[in-house]
Design brief:
Order of helices and strands: EEEEEEEEEEEEEEEEE
Oligomer: single chain
Shape: globular
Largest sheet: 9 strands, parallel
Length: about 200
């Protein structure tokens, strides 16, 4: 189900996508997939509003992601070679999200950490993520910053052992106990909530 596009573009650093399918009750059944294996030089991806989720597939290098009023699931699937470094880092900015899911995956079957750090920025208004799915890239460090409150409803993946919200100037709510048996959590400057 859904639609796939293979853009024939070059010398483009920023790709912004809106899935204009009519919004209906079944989430992610009309996901728009953008196949990017033949596109190089991308620096930033964005999923903006729309009626259903967006998947950016076979991304060849580390990019930043913006989810602005994004609906359902926004996925970035990296080519395995893109995450070959020992200190790979990605920035994700959420703005106006409400029960959205962000999923970062790659093509590798390795059990070693692929995307070591994710910087999650909460801007504009109070944001809610239904889930932040990093299990596919085994991220260990999640840094949270920005000026708007952030709620993550589902438990963080077990690979995430460091959660640092010291640069967040609004409140952080983790509605479920993180999946890691042992983790380090540094709160922000406002009242934070961690479900036990």
């Amino acid at each position: 189900l859904g639609t796939s596009l293979i853009p024939q573009i070059s010398n483009i650093e920023v790709i912004q996508v809106t899935n204009n399918i009519a919004d209906e009750t079944t989430a992610d059944d009309d996901t728009l997939t953008i196949a990017l294996s033949s596109v190089t030089g991308i620096e930033s991806l964005a999923a903006i509003a729309g009626g259903d989720g967006v998947t950016f597939n076979d991304v060849g290098n580390i990019v930043s992601l913006k989810a602005q009023s994004a609906i359902n699931t926004t996925t970035v699937n990296y080519d395995a070679a893109a995450l070959a470094g020992a200190a790979d880092e990605m920035t994700i900015t959420v703005s106006g999200t409400n029960t959205s899911t962000i999923s970062i995956t790659d093509d590798s079957t390795s059990t070693a950490s692929a995307l070591e750090s994710v910087n999650l920025v909460s801007n504009s208004v109070a944001n809610t993520l239904a889930a932040l799915d990093l299990a596919g890239v085994l991220t260990s460090t999640l840094n949270i910053s920005g000026g708007s409150a952030l709620t993550i409803t589902a438990a963080l993946d077990a690979s995430v052992t460091t959660i640092d919200a010291s640069a967040l100037s609004a409140s952080l709510t983790l509605s479920a106990d993180p999946g890691a048996a042992n983790f380090t959590l540094v709160g922000g400057s406002k009242a934070d909530t961690l479900a036990a």
